[in-house]
Backbone:
């Protein structure tokens, strides 16, 4: 694949009015933004508490160190990111998730990390807060062919795994979302899915520096609809791999069976790498709609992270291992 | 010249069919369509086109069951407005979603079966809309009735389109398809005879 800059592909993109808002925000943070975008390693930060329960009483403005990603594309707004969510445990209606998830209890919380490890550990919220938090501006490409640019806050999963000391036999990492039949209406509404939500990564994918455990976005703690208190973010894979509200992480030898592989094995595979050349059986993955824009963008191989991750899959037929 | 007289049901229909569009425009201007405005507008116009088409198909069997002829007058407006919403749906796809990018549109329309089926449905509705005018009715005579049985094909294909594109709520499109199949079944001569028999028996 020849490398084309995204501005060449889509010269005529028209941003809707909310973009103007972003631009004015950008003027305020512009200087710092450029610096951070270049060195990619902003200084450690702390997260402001999110607007729990009462968004009107929100004490802090959302903030990010840059108003664009490394390709120069503007961030999506806090409003878009927190009001357009796929979270079937609440509902399949992306616009309604925020309402249903409002006030969902995320404290206390525990993440049990175990399986093939020397040092099985249960992480509390306080334990999670001990990790050094960094900002990562990533593109999020949904398998449904839309995308956003999101300033995540979090820490590399590899740092968490280092603490539990994986055994040599561990080949895969299996993640599980909370399965709360009382607080989440989706389990009774959609009984045909094999709950709980399960996702997985190969060990080398899990250890990759891009793979993030996110606890916040736009400088604030995550809201329930975005997978609070801690979720995975794997930017080169379709969004559904980035499992939300994790309660359990296991290191295993066998490739885990994931909820989506169970539901539609011919449509969703284990890898789910963003790949414009391998279509979903029912729709094209060649283009995507960036939320907030008119027209389509061409989807980038590995969602634009090919330089960082393509080597993980060298020699693999990606149309079979989709 | 004879003055056209409208049945109250027709008047209600001619007003009601504009409500979904009015709500869509209201929500559009009040930032009520969520973050993905384009998708939401596409889904809503598609759903309205399907619903009106199904209602149009329901007129004949329901009028048979209820022995209420005025319902037959609603078939044409419901079908025509289904075509209007399908046209808006298509226009959003071409002009907003793909922003008139012809190379991308060609692929998007002709490579995926859900889009091919949607396009076919839309073309059938176009033909039916054109041939529903008085001039064409006169020209086609009997064949016009036959031609307009294609409305059932359109209804069925619209549900196939829905089944193939659905991203969430896997159940809903199958329910629509079931409804269309029941309506089709109701038109099959033996079933129709049976309904008529039941009706005359239960009549006082
Ligand atoms: C003319 C060609 C057509 C094209 C290119 C087209 C394209 C589309 C697209 C892109 C979607 C949204 C998919 C998504 O984002 O998930 C959609 C949804 C839909 N379309 Fe079409 N469509 C066409 C014709 C039609 C016609 C003629 C009807 C009905 C009479 C129809 C009924 C629907 C329905 C019911 C939905 C789903 C609504 C929902 O999920 O709530 N479409 N169509």
Residues:
């Amino acid at each position: 694949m020849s490398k084309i800059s995204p501005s060449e592909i889509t010269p005529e993109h028209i941003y809707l009015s909310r973009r103007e808002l972003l631009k004015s925000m950008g003027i305020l943070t512009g200087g710092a933004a450029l610096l951070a975008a270049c060195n990619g390693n902003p200084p450690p930060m702390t997260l402001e508490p999110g607007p729990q329960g009462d968004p009107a009483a929100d004490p802090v403005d959302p903030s990010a160190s840059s108003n664009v990603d490394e390709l120069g594309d503007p961030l999506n707004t806090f409003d878009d990111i927190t009001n357009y969510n796929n979270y079937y445990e609440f509902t399949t209606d992306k616009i309604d998730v925020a309402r249903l998830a409002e006030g969902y209890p995320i404290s206390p919380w525990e993440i049990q990390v175990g399986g093939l490890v020397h040092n099985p550990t249960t992480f509390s919220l306080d334990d999670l807060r001990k990790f050094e938090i960094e900002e990562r501006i990533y593109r999020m490409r949904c398998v449904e062919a839309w995308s956003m640019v999101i300033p995540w806050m979090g820490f590399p999963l590899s740092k968490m795994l280092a603490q539990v000391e994986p055994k040599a036999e561990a080949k895969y990492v299996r993640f599980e979302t909370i399965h709360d039949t009382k607080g989440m209406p989706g389990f009774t509404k959609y009984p045909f899915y094999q709950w709980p939500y399960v996702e997985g990564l190969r060990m080398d994918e899990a250890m990759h520096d891009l793979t993030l455990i996110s606890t916040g976005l736009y400088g604030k703690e995550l809201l329930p609809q975005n997978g609070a208190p801690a979720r995975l973010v794997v930017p080169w894979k379709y969004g559904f791999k980035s499992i939300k509200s994790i309660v359990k992480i296991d290191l295993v030898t066998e490739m885990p069976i994931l909820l989506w592989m169970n539901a539609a094995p011919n449509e969703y595979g284990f890898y789910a790498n963003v790949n414009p050349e391998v279509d979903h059986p029912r729709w094209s993955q060649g283009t995507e709609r960036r939320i907030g824009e008119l027209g389509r963008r061409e989807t980038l191989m590995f969602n634009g992270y090919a330089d960082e991750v393509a080597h993980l899959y060298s020699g693999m037929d990606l149309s079979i291992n989709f | 010249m004879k003055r056209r007289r409208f049945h109250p049901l027709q008047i209600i229909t001619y007003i009601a069919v504009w409500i979904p569009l009015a709500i869509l425009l209201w929500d559009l201007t009040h930032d009520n369509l969520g973050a993905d405005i384009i998708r939401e507008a596409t889904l809503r116009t598609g759903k309205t086109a399907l619903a009106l088409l199904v209602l149009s198909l329901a007129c004949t069997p329901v009028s048979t069951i209820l022995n209420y002829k005025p319902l037959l007058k609603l078939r044409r407006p419901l079908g025509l407005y289904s075509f209007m919403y399908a046209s808006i749906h298509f226009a959003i796809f071409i002009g907003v979603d793909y922003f008139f990018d012809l190379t991308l549109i060609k692929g998007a329309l002709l490579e995926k079966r859900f889009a091919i089926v949607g396009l076919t449905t839309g073309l059938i509705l176009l033909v039916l809309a054109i041939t529903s005018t008085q001039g064409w009715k006169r020209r086609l005579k009997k064949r016009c009735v036959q031609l307009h049985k294609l409305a059932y094909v359109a209804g069925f294909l619209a549900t196939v389109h829905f089944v193939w594109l659905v991203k969430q709520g896997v159940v809903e499109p199958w329910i629509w398809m079931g409804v269309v199949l029941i309506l089709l079944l109701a038109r099959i001569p033996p079933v129709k005879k049976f309904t008529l028999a039941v009706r005359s028996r239960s009549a006082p």
Notes: The radius of gyration of chain B is 19 Å. Chain B is about 80% helix and 0% strand. The interface with chain A takes residues 34-40, 96-99, 101, 104, 107-108, 111-114, 164-165, 167-170 of chain B (CB under 8 Å). Residues 197 and 203 of chain B are 10 Å apart (CA to CA).
